[in-house]
Amino acid sequence: MTLKDNLHAFFYPAAVAVIGASSTPGKVGHTVVTNMLSAGYTGKLLPVNPKGGEIEGLPVTTDINDLPRGLDLAVIAVPPKYVVEAVRELGMIGAKSAIVITAGFKEAGKEGYDLEQELKALCEEYGISLLGPNCLGMINVGAGVNASFAAGQPGRGSIAFFSQSGALCVAILDWALGANIGFSKFVSLGNKAVLDEADMLEYLNRDEDTKVILGYIENVEHGEAFLKEARRTSLNKPVIMIKAGTTAAGAKAASSHTGAIAGSDQSYTAAFHQSGVIRVGDVATLFNLAQAFSSQPLPKGPNLAVVTNAGGPGILAADAADRSKLSMAELSPRTIEKLQEFLPSYAAFYNPVDIVADADARRYRQTLDVIGEDPMVHSILVLLTPTASVEIEKAAEAVIRTAQKWTKPVFACFMGKTKVAGARKMLMDAGVPCYAFPEPAVHSIETMYQYYLWKHRPAPVYAEVTRDMDAVRKVIDDHLRRRQAEVVEFEAQQILRAYGLPTPRTRLARTSDEAVAAAEEIGYPVVLKIASPDISHKTDVGGVAVNLVNAREVMETFKEITARAQRLRRDAYIAGCLVQEMAPPGVREVIIGFKRDEQFGPMLMFGLGGVYVEIMKDISFKLAPLSKQDAFEIVREIKSYMLLKGLRGEKPVNFAALEEIIMVMSRLALDLPEVLEAEFNPILVNNERAMVADVRMTLSV
Asked: Which residue ranges does UniProt annotate as crossing the membrane (predicted)?
């Protein structure tokens, strides 16, 4: 039996057993039974309790072993000490899936953790798809299944929702009942001992009843599987998620800039962005977007037309559009001519189209008919304020008619509360998203447009990276054998060369005479850097000197740097100094690094280099492997991008050279799982070339 088969049995069970069913109202085992009956379940419902008798008119099975072989679904609501044995017995009768509502597992401490591990091992042994433990349960509205202890039965819709928080499930169900929002599937994941977000995405992607997938997560334990399913699903239908725990307060301290800056939240942001998941920050936005995506077609372009009966709201909508990825549509001359035929002379004929305060429903209908015909308009937002003359419900009918007539998305914003309540319900019931204010309406349209662009982006292309892995492994294995975590620059230079990375001409000098000879060979001016496997931050010991222009300066500086380093770090082995060619004038400094995230693997970062990375923290992030498009985007996502592009006549940096280095870093991160963190800082780049001027790596030893 495959996971796909099990999940079908899970959501569409022909027979459901409730282990721990109770005849006492208020107990979980009683609520599950009554919820199943209230949902209209037409399959075989089997309460199980050693006491026997009847529950809600259903005969009670006294022993799990008496249940039908190959049972589709069992809902378990017994104390935690009895759960493992119940699952063992279910496995022996070939049960396909189970929901453990019971709490008291890994969330309760070590004893509960051990119990959950035993439960997980049993499910793997018997091939049981398990939801929970410590969860609210599952609802499949279309199949009449409410295998939960939630209060209330949601209506049917095309929105699927899964959540790691059972308490949030309860609150959202109650809110959805009041807002008349329906669901296709509703799942409380709980502790995710077996079934997790990736499994839900894999199934819901295939589910014909689901148009939009919503999720609330606190953590992802199988990042690679999640990314795979999220990418696949997002290409088919929108996935919208809230990720709780957005601060980096709990992140471990790291020795590199990358590690210090790249908190856990950045990895989730990068994962969502690269897999097409739409991330939101609050539940209201989650359901605003869910209603929009489930009821309206995607806009096929950025051009928004706004129709309003009041100037102020129209300006607010235009301002919101200007701050977004949308554009205010430039109406065609033919459209304006048609509007002038029936709108009063004091109306505003250009976008936003202000049909003025005395507009009636007929004027709304005529205006929307004309706007809808304009090929330059990709989406329409209709604003209404409850003036004395406007016929609110009839205006709503005009908006509904427009939404049904055109294949363009139509949104409404009926401002106010009491007077517009009936019209807003009409619009929502007809599948036209209606908002109280213009800004969230514009945000919904923008999000749908960005999702349209993501769905239609070209398939990712990955660059081939040539490297000498024998040379790389020699350096890494030497450090692992010595249990030396830091691979500092003078040793890491060998890795750079093995990957064919461009670097300034560099020589290791063990004496001042060797330093002078190296400088003469490279050509003045030069840079001197302390070379020590024990000193990772050279500037902390005054270990860098730049713009040395003759032999005397090189000799004296070599002695000063090595003596100072030995004095400040008496435990450090000083190998000498690196002598390096000086950067040409006009270069900018950038940083490329990565940190290995526990959930998602290597997370790359890009930003301005040198001291700027610490001060400005203007950083962009992507998860490896990076495609060519990812490398293109990561450079352009920082706020300081214009400094690299060139201001006031400055030439832009060689972006292609930077992107090649980024692709190499992505490949290196995947090649070397022993490397926890690495950074090229600074990378010196001008309009001609880019060079890795300094490098360091941290290994897991």
From this structure: none
